């Protein structure tokens, strides 16, 4: 059996086209486009690339993109003042503070200061709480994107055995909550789980969000399962740099029913979901 490859790029392109169309309708109705502010502190090269890509995608969707690039020695007070100003800025529907922040800044406090109704990353504890109790809020983009790819695979989530490896606030926990909301039977596995291979073999839906290159082996996968590989790992192989996921892809694709590649799977979904969340924020704020 060879798995269907779930094309995250194609799904993200479709989602972006839908968001752009709705953003245009919103702009016409309200005299301004939805707006996203991205704050970058310091010069971390990976963060610079992410911020640039987010800005480009925001503009491509016809939205307002505002970037604040601050020096690495920005004080906590300065950053808090900026976040509070963005909270009050009527043009801005979404605020994203790019993580990681330099060590002298308290990331938890900064995130906590973002208006939860503009927290399009879904990192604020209020949004984590809303997700758990089933209220409308914002769900972290990678978790949201992973769910869309599960739906793209056409699997029935209700009643399915779902195993999520990884319990981070960013991915593992929110994706588990989303699966639970859809009536899957969810197991959360992590670094202390005993016999991870046996736990994974139960899964009709297997989500790997670990950060360990090719941890998940082909014989951990139930034949026909849907495998969502969130991992992004840079490794040296055959004398060159490669990007690989948390799943041993080549072997896994012989066993799974559907699988996301790395790159080109979950990755492209993350920014697309950020734009979707920003549009949702604008629409909700207009109704208030
Ligand atoms: P994290 O380091 O915060 O969490 C990793 C989790 O994996 C932890 O909960 C830990 O308990 C678990 N874990 C670690 N080693 C394990 C092991 N040997 N067996 C079982 N569980 C183990 O990471 P994160 O932020 O959740 O990210 C996970 C991966 O997803 C990373 O590779 C990251 O780069 C990637 N990621 C991708 C996107 C995207 O857009 N595709 C977005 C966010 C994160």
Short description:
The protein is of the alpha/beta class. It has ten helices and eleven strands. It has two domains: about 90 residues, Leucine Dehydrogenase, chain A, domain 1 (Rossmann fold, 3-Layer(aba) Sandwich); about 130 residues, 3-Layer(aba) Sandwich (Rossmann fold).
The biggest sheet amounts to:
6 strands, parallel
The kinds of small molecule bound in this structure are: nicotinamide-adenine-dinucleotide
**Fraction of helical residues:** 40-55%
* Count of structural domains: 2
Report, as a whole number of angstroms, the end-to-end distance.
52 Å
Sequence of strands across the biggest β-sheet? 1-11-8-7-5-6
What would you note in describing this structure?
- By secondary structure, this protein is an alpha/beta fold.
- Helices cover 42% and strands 17% of the residues.
- Helix 1 runs parallel beside helix 10, helix 6 (141-152) crosses helix 7 (172-181) and helix 6 crosses helix 10.
- It binds nicotinamide-adenine-dinucleotide.
- The site of nicotinamide-adenine-dinucleotide (NAD) has 25 residues, from helix 10.
Q: Tags for this entry?
A:
alpha/beta; six-stranded parallel beta sheet; 288 residues; three-stranded parallel beta sheet; single chain; globular; 11 strands; Rossmann fold; binds nicotinamide-adenine-dinucleotide
How are the SSEs placed, and which strands pair?
Elements: E1 4-5, H1 8-30, E2 35-41, H2 45-60, E3 64-70, H3 76-88, E4 94-97, H4 107-113, H5 125-133, H6 141-152, E5 161-165, H7 172-181, E6 185-189, H8 196-201, E7 205-208, E8 226-229, E9 233-237, E10 240-244, H9 249-252, E11 258-259, H10 266-287
Parallel strand pairs: 1-11, 2-3, 2-4, 5-6, 5-7, 7-8, 8-11
Antiparallel strand pairs: 9-10
The protein binds nicotinamide-adenine-dinucleotide.
Nicotinamide-adenine-dinucleotide is lined by residues 142, 165-168, 170-172, 189-191, 193, 196, 209-212, 215, 230-233, 266-267, 270.
């Amino acid at each position: 059996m060879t798995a269907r490859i779930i094309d995250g790029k194609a799904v993200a392109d479709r989602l972006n086209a839908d968001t752009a169309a709705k953003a245009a309708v919103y702009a016409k109705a309200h005299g301004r486009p939805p707006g996203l502010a991205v704050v970058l502190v310091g010069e971390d090269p990976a963060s610079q690339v992410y911020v640039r890509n987010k800005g480009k995608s925001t503009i491509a969707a016809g939205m307002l993109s505002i970037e604040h690039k601050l020096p690495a020695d920005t004080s906590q007070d300065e950053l808090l003042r900026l976040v509070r100003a963005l909270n009050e800025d009527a043009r801005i529907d979404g605020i994203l503070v790019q993580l990681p922040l330099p060590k002298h800044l308290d990331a938890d406090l900064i995130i906590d200061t973002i208006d939860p109704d503009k927290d399009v990353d879904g990192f604020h504890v209020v949004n984590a709480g809303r997700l758990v109790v089933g209220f409308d809020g914002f769900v972290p983009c990678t978790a949201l994107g992973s769910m869309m790819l599960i739906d793209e695979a056409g699997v029935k989530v209700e009643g399915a055995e779902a195993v999520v490896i990884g319990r981070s606030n960013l991915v593992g926990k929110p994706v588990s909550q989303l699966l639970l909301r859809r009536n899957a039977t969810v197991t959360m596995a992590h670094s202390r789980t005993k016999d991870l291979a046996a736990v994974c073999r139960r899964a009709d839906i297997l989500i790997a969000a670990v950060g360990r290159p090719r941890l998940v082996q082909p014989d951990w996968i139930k034949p026909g399962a849907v495998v969502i590989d969130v991992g992004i790992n840079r490794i040296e192989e055959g004398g060159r740099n490669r990007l690989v996921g948390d799943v041993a892809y080549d072997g896994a694709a012989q066993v799974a029913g559907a699988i996301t590649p790395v790159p080109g799977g979950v990755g492209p979904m993350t920014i697309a979901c950020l734009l979707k969340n920003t549009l949702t924020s604008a629409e909700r704020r207009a109704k208030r």
